[in-house]
Amino acid sequence: MLNFNYDIPTKVFFGKDQISVLGEQVKKYGSKVLLVYGGGSIKKSGLYDRVVEILNNANIQFLELSGVEPNPRITSVRKGAELCKENNIDFILAVGAGSVIDCAKVIAAANYYDGDPWDFLTRKAPIQKVLPIGTILTLAATGSEMDPFAVISNLDTNEKLATAHPDMSPKFSILDPTYTFTVPASQTAAGTADIMSHIYENYFSNTKSAYLQSRMAEAMLKTCIKYGPIAYKEPENYEARANLMWTSSLAINGLISYGKETEWSVHAMEHELSAFYDITHGVGLALLTPYWMKYILNDDTVDGFVEYGVNVWGIDSEGDKFEIANKAIDMTREFFVSLGLPTKLQEIGIDRENLETMAKGAVRYGEIGNFRKLNAEDVLKIFESALSSDS
Ligand code: NZQ
Ligand code: ZN
Predict the structure, then answer these.
(1) Residue after which a domain boundary falls, among 179, 214, 235
(2) Do residues 344 and 225 both lie within one domain?
(3) Ligand 1 pocket mutation, candidates 36, 103, 281, 285, criterion most atoms within 8 A of CB
(4) Are 214 and 331 within one domain?
(5) pLDDT, tens digit (0-9, with 9 covering 90-100), for 67-104
(6) Is 17 left (phi over 0), alpha (psi -120 to 50) or beta?
(7) Which atom of ligand 1 is nearest to the CA of 139?
(8) Fewer CB atoms near the end CB (10 Å): N or C, the chain?
(9) Cα–Cα dist 213/256, whole Å
(10) Distance CA 235, CA 167 (A)
(11) Which of 148, 179, 210 is the endpoint of a domain?
(12) How far is the CA of 200 from the centre of ligand 1 (A)?
């Protein structure tokens, strides 16, 4: 029975030159801003200069936290939180991709916490209060621009953990697809895989009554399948970049999960790979997804894969169910390969050494998944299947 509360609070300004709203939007929430960004892509593209110009023209004071790493570190969060506390920051503006936005979100929460912000990630302390944040997105992937989640890494403990709070949803996000023209092909591929994985995590479910959500999810998958390869080959194709960008936001903002039991097992597994080997999130997802699909395919789940194969990949619905399901999984893998994404753990420098520890880490809070529940032994088998050369 469908039963849910709709609440997607982020205001979205979508399209070319929407940055013109930046000054007025920031002023709605604060007057002393922490500008958070990454390793320099926004300086190269000229976006940094434009943001600074707008803030200066609007007489908005700001400080900067630069150098936020991909797989953002807790050390950057700590640095940002100190800056906020010492300078009475009242608004955080994240300009960049998912890592920058996630870092900004946890800084925003840490501003109101006296202890170590890592406590939020380990669930030692709940997030109570959060500074308002806004984002200017530069890469279509995580959906962090419109969701309440953040994922932070701790290199000292080999942990990559997620947290969430409703107030960590950005107040506004400026989504100008032209800012993603400079994203390199490899990140475009990883981003597309990340968006698709978010859709899979919501799509494959035991809840059968959320018909509309499932059809929307299929439309989003088809959008990635159509436009991912175009953006990969033609980085300045506005139509492709725009469709990917909007799909990234809608895939994880709640729209397609309302009223559904969701999955989120591939993400739990991938975060272990990133925690130990600092790999790109979307690369790990693309690699693991087909192995996970094969592993969970059984009499209980086959109908879900048939629906996926027929509705998303256009496979003929006549014929053996398992043949259709396996073909859909093969097409998924082939799609990722066509975007230059790897299929074996060895290709990204991962061998057997930490598989068992990572499998345990993936289920640290209990079994993962719902469509088919996975324990540490299952996760280890999935990791192992991604190591061998013939599966
Ligand atoms: O640091 P800069 O110089 O900006 O370069 C970045 C970085 O090297 C570069 N980049 C970004 N925009 C660019 C660009 N290069 C050229 N032109 C542009 N326009 O891309 C590299 C990767 O950036 P990153 O922020 O790490 O990418 P992504 O957006 O994929 O974020 C990944 C992080 O988000 C987490 C992941 O686990 C990972 O830590 N996730 C966050 C989620 C959320 N908040 O809801 C959900 C996701 O499932 C995911 O777990
Ligand atoms: Zn993801």
Answers:
(1) 179
(2) yes
(3) 281
(4) yes
(5) 999 999 999 999 999 999 999 999 999 999 999 999 99
(6) left
(7) 12
(8) N
(9) 5
(10) 34
(11) 179
(12) 20
> What is the extent of the structural domain holding 47?
11-179
Instruction: 183-188: list long-range contacts, CB under 8 Å, 24+ apart.
Output: 183/138, 183/139, 183/140, 183/235, 185/232, 185/233, 185/235, 185/340, 186/280, 186/340, 187/139, 187/141, 187/280, 187/282, 188/228, 188/231, 188/232, 188/235, 188/244, 188/339
Give the model confidence (pLDDT) of 104-137 as tens digits. Answer: 999 999 999 999 999 999 999 999 999 999 999 9
pTM of the model: 0.98
- 127 & 20 share domain: yes
| Mean pLDDT for the stretch of residues 136-155 | 98
Return the ligand 1 atom nearest residue 99 CA.
Answer: 25
Q: How far is the CA of 191 from the centre of ligand 2 (A)?
A: 8
**Measuring from each residue's beta carbon to the nearest atom of ligand 1, which residues come in under 6 Å?**
38-42, 45, 70-71, 96-100, 102, 138-139, 141-144, 147, 149-151, 179-180, 182-183, 187, 191, 194, 252, 267, 281-282
Identity at 128, one-letter amino acid code: Q
